[in-house]
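Lab meeting minutes (informal)
Scribe: AK
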Amino acid sequence: MYHLIKSEMPRPLEYSAEVQSDRFRPWSPVPGNPFLNDEVKERQRAVNERIDQLFMLPPKDQFVPDSFRDMLFDDHVISFQRRNMLNFNRFSEWRVGVDPSQMSQESCRVEDGSATVMDTLTHLHITSTESGEVGKTTHPYSQGIEHIADFRQEVTDSITALGGIVTPSIQGYRSIDITPKYYRDDDNKIVVLGLIANYKHDIGTIPATQKDQLVTIVERQIAGYRVDEAAGFDQDIAANLATELDKFDNFVYDNTTEYDIVLAKILESTGCRDYVERIIQSDALEPFVVPVSTTIYGFRGQQKQPTVTLNPKAINVHGMVFLDPAVKAQ
């Protein structure tokens, strides 16, 4: 789905000059403990400041509406805080009671945020940590999207080096979640600002030190969807979505099962889910699709037989095929 668009704005540095080293990558994970010390906190502040600029200063040639820009930035802030605390909580659950002198070098680097992909996967391999971020590259409006291929390659190489199995890339996306962002205007009518789509596919598995357990490695992509006519989104679907949302006087996001059920029905009845899901599964290069981020994480679970779901609709499976190192080498 992700495509390159020439930007008129110079892209900010991924990391400040003070923290440049051969250990840091544009996809380096958040620290296991982002509150560890002043050095870690300052490094994260500098990185976050530059990422925020990518959201607030989209390329001029994309003519992004201010309302959509602000929506995407707000969602990014919420998502970052959730991701930061989830990673911290999972790492802390393992870290509490562990003698620092007994921590591996890999685990120490995971804690302070200087870990490589191999470090994070090794940490998940040798400890009882339930889950953890392997890495993430944030690329709103395709700014920095060129890092995805190298990021994925480093992950698959590390999985193989640890004796794991890489999942075939022909599988389809799963766990597709679509959320409309909207508000009521002065006339009390629903105005849809855009959509946020999350979707996943398995990267592979590595063995865990606990008997009969595996660490499953998953990639999660997030993209924003503009619904304005100028971007080319189907206007009948956009209008139907607003109409259906408007029928619910107190229809606000409250993170409940009831909300999810109502939203699912609305997305289905308006044709929005089918429309967006077809674009996701085919990696269609549509101008209203705004790439946001690619995260790879691992979680521990019981060993099971691997399954692969084929994606017969796939055109450029899992992001542009010409970003795939194997294709570039041909």
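Next up, CB showed the second protein from the same session:
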Amino acid sequence: MPTLHLDKLDICYNSKDVINIDILSNILIPIPSMKIQKKIISVIDTYNKKINENNKSINTYTEIQKNMIWINLLNNTKKTSKLKDILNIKNGSQLVSSKKQTDLGDNQYKYQEYGGYNDKFQPIYNCENSIIISKFDENTNIKYIKDKFFLNQNGWALSITDKHFLTEYIYIWLWNNQNNLFLKENNILHQTNFLNIQIFNVDIDIQNKIISEFNYYENLKRLLISDNNHLGKYDIINIILESYNNISIDMEAIDSLSASEDKSQPSSPVINSKMQQTTPTGP
């Protein structure tokens, strides 16, 4: 049975993101029996259903986070402070040398790059324990990174200067308001307008309460996202088809199953032990 070269799908597009028919038409795919095709579809449908359920839960947890934040703030806010009075903005820098995570050949490229891209690593760092904002994204991307990292020219790093504010609280407040918080000119964040934004000033114990409740649901979301990545259709197809490609299958025995519906328990086709180890059975 031929191998399904799914890795070649990425090179079916030219520099203008137009699909290359010549490459696509020469990709080999296995043609298993109808019985196996139906089994593959059934497994993928099961996984997709689980992924959709996880996504609904993720959205629900996000809404709970937003409501929780506002409930705590509205019940405990005493006053507001402008961002310019409680934090500093550091602009990122440009570094030509970079490698993707998959291309790391040595340990010196160990600092994640943030700003506009996050799949590269750098040999040096210029920030740590900071809130990151991507200046040029259509949907402003906000992260809180505790580790050392490299910030490129497309981002800001926010560091808190007022001891009455916790960095993670500021991050959560910005995260909760990112869709309507930023005044943009030509899709670029305007620093003066940003620094004049007012943030709710609450006691440290309330900030810690917000952080604790936010992170509880954030961890639940991470588990579901990790589950979705594991259940991703691309990986499942590869696992199933590669398992069929690497094992010995009695195709006649499989095809004969469709003619055995009148039997109470048809016998299984003859396969070796490798298939039993590699074929997924569902979540």
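CB comment: Helices lie at 21-25, 34-76, 167-177, 191-195, 204-231, 233-245, 251-257, 273-278.
No objections, moving on.
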